[in-house]
Amino acid sequence: MKRVTLWLLLATLALQGADPLECSRIFEERKQELELKLERIDEQRQAYEALRDATEAMLSRKEAKLRKLAEDLNATRTRLEEERKQIEKLIAKNEALLKAIKEAKAEKVSQTYAKMKASAAAQILSNMKPEEAAKIVATLKPKTVGQILAKMDPAKASEITLLLEDRTSR
Prior knowledge:
This protein has helices at about 1-15, 20-115, 120-125, 130-140, 140-150, 155-170. The model has no long low-confidence stretch (mean pLDDT about 85). It has a domain at about 115-170. The chain has six helices and no strands. α1 runs antiparallel to α2. It is mostly helical and about 170 residues long.
């Protein structure tokens, strides 16, 4: 398009009878203008390409960083999940140990009261809270329970009996 314009300009000048030297000068000036525009366009293209390359490089670095962060996050998530499972196993193990300790303790207390005389056991159990006394009495043999309750105050004995009945009905 620029060439066509240039040719039209030359043709117009030729028709008007312009001097060929002046046409050459005009042509050279126009040529220099066009060369300057081409240089600016080339500089802008190079600047654009440099900017594009820099942007792509920056984007690649950010994507690599995000991938690394995602990998780290997944590794942390996996590690935490493993730790959670280990903690759950330890909790279950501790609960089982605690249950065994409580059972052993209850068995020991039960054996202690079973070896006591009924009157001594009745006096001790009478001084306890009824719920605690019922827990202990529930572990004893029925014959021993009967002997102990017979030696207790009737009101306290009936309260413990009702608690025992509630425990067995659950």
